[in-house]
Write a structure and sequence with these properties.
ten-stranded antiparallel sheet; 10 strands; globular
Length: about 300
């Protein structure tokens, strides 16, 4: 397993620890750059700069740093977060329509669907166990259901590269049907009280944090999934930068949401992908774009 922490973790930290204390403030933008790998065995030091605080807006610039094995400290992420007070009705309201897909009530949890495929003899046990190992943090944090026509489900996020899928002819540069249904496992309406040395977590900050975590979760390697590959096929695969835009001031990640992801460009050792999240009533809640590094393995002589 990788020794580096999942990129969504650091976004998660920045989102919930910088929420302004003014009533009615909600996150609407988070833009950042990954500056280096974040280890899982060391604390992260956050420096928060109050760039702007007005009656309507608040802007925070956050630097995250971590001690290195040689005792020096290295910056691992730089993020700018913007918050705004809800201004009431808009002159115009509209939202991109979500793709039509199966309802969450008609689908099993994805981990249960994998177990069923193993039990039926249509999947090797190692495929299901690899998914649980690689994506352990995601499946411990989120309930996930995947429609039958989604390539991510059919090839197990790229792990089962040899799988026969229903999307022949829809691989890169075209985009497969990639919808994922998801919700939080933990009750975010009443987060647990903090320990003596941690920052209090409000329901609002918990939802904003998990939003960043969920949208970040697969964007870096989606080009591999869509091209019938997986992470062991490349020498490097990781996020370089991201931009999260939030279109709702009343987030509730305990309800089912539908995420659609697609990749748009690949070349020069980089990829560019986007993800969008809709609420169950069809409203666009947020979008995230990411540019990621993706390098081939060196050819063996």
């Amino acid at each position: 397993m990788a020794k580096s922490a999942f990129g969504g973790n650091t976004q998660y930290l920045a989102a919930y620890q910088t929420l302004p204390t003014q009533d009615g403030m909600a996150l609407y933008s988070m833009i950042g750059h990954f500056l280096g790998p974040t280890g899982k065995d060391k604390a992260i030091r956050m420096t928060v700069d109050d760039v702007r605080t007005t009656r309507t807006f608040a802007t925070r610039r956050v630097m995250l740093a971590q001690e290195q094995p040689d005792g020096t400290e290295r910056s691992v992420m730089a993020i700018t977060l913007d918050f705004v007070v809800s201004t009431g009705p808009s002159f115009i309201q509209f939202s991109l329509t979500p793709p039509v897909t199966a309802h969450h009530s008609d689908l099993p949890l994805y981990v249960d669907a994998l177990d069923a495929r193993v039990a039926s003899g249509t999947m090797l046990p190692v495929v299901a166990s690899t998914f649980r190992t690689v994506f352990d943090l995601i499946t411990r944090t989120l309930d996930i259901k995947i429609p039958d026509d989604a390539l991510m489900g059919q090839n197990v996020w790229g792990i089962e590269k040899w799988a026969q899928t229903s999307q022949v002819g829809r691989l890169l540069p075209k985009n497969p049907i990639p919808s994922v249904l998801t919700r939080a496992k933990t009750d975010l309406s009443n987060p647990p009280p903090p320990s003596d040395d941690s920052v209090p977590i409000s329901s609002q900050s918990a939802n904003a944090s998990l939003l960043a975590f969920a949208l970040d979760s697969a964007l870096a390697f989606i080009p591999l999934t869509f091209s019938g590959s997986f992470m062991q096929d490349v020498s490097a695969c990781g996020s370089l930068d991201f931009s999260l835009r939030v279109f709702s001031d009343k987030l509730d990640l305990n309800q089912w949401h539908m995420e659609e992801m697609w990749t748009i460009s690949g070349g020069l050792g980089r990829t560019y992908s986007e993800g969008k999240l809709w609420s169950e009533d069809g409203k666009l809640v947020a979008s995230m774009s990411q540019q990621s590094v993706m390098r081939p393995k060196e050819a063996k002589l």
